[in-house]
Design a protein that fits this description.
It is a single chain. This protein has no helices and 13 strands. With 148 residues, it is mainly β. The chain has one domain. The strands form three sheets. The chain has a six-stranded parallel beta sheet, with no helix packed on it. The chain has a four-stranded parallel beta sheet with strand order 4-7-10-12, with no helix packed on it.
């Protein structure tokens, strides 16, 4: 009996200390089984989205310490009308983040954001250092008011 099986393998080279999206079980961002190490990201996690795997969809609000989508990636994060709260840098690249709210709540010395982004709320605008996107442009109103 000749049995042929087809397998798909992904090689993921993640930055040191980051938790990588694998989409092992589904495309649910909130499911631990879809992340290397079997743990979904928390507000202190450096999240890495490689270009070799399918995109993610939030099933509930989620958080990350930072978010990097691999350069050249077309993978996207569908927020599914939920909120993704990030306290550090966001690099969305080509696939982008869409259909929900990206909340930036960093308290460090600066936050860099770039890429294709959804509605973006800035919780601490004084720390916003750089914005580059086809959808988001630097604007004066992103700076905190100095009026008394």
């Amino acid at each position: 009996m000749d049995v042929t099986r087809e397998f798909t393998f992904y090689a993921i080279m993640k930055p040191s200390g980051a938790v990588a999206w694998t989409a092992n079980a589904s495309q649910d961002f909130n499911a631990a089984a879809n992340w290397d190490g079997g743990v979904a990201p928390t507000s202190s996690s450096a999240v890495f989205m490689p270009n070799a795997v399918p995109g993610a969809t939030l099933s509930a609000n989620a958080a990350a310490g930072s978010l990097k989508m691999e350069t050249g990636s077309n993978v996207n994060i569908a927020l599914n009308t939920k909120t993704l709260t990030v306290s550090g840098d966001v690099s969305a690249n080509a696939g982008g983040i869409n259909n929900g709210t990206l909340a930036l709540v960093g308290t460090g010395t600066g936050i860099n954001i770039g890429g294709t982004l959804p509605t973006t709320t800035v919780g601490n605008a004084s720390n916003l250092r750089h914005v580059s996107s086809s959808l988001v442009r630097p604007r004066r109103d992103l700076r905190p008011s100095t009026a008394s």
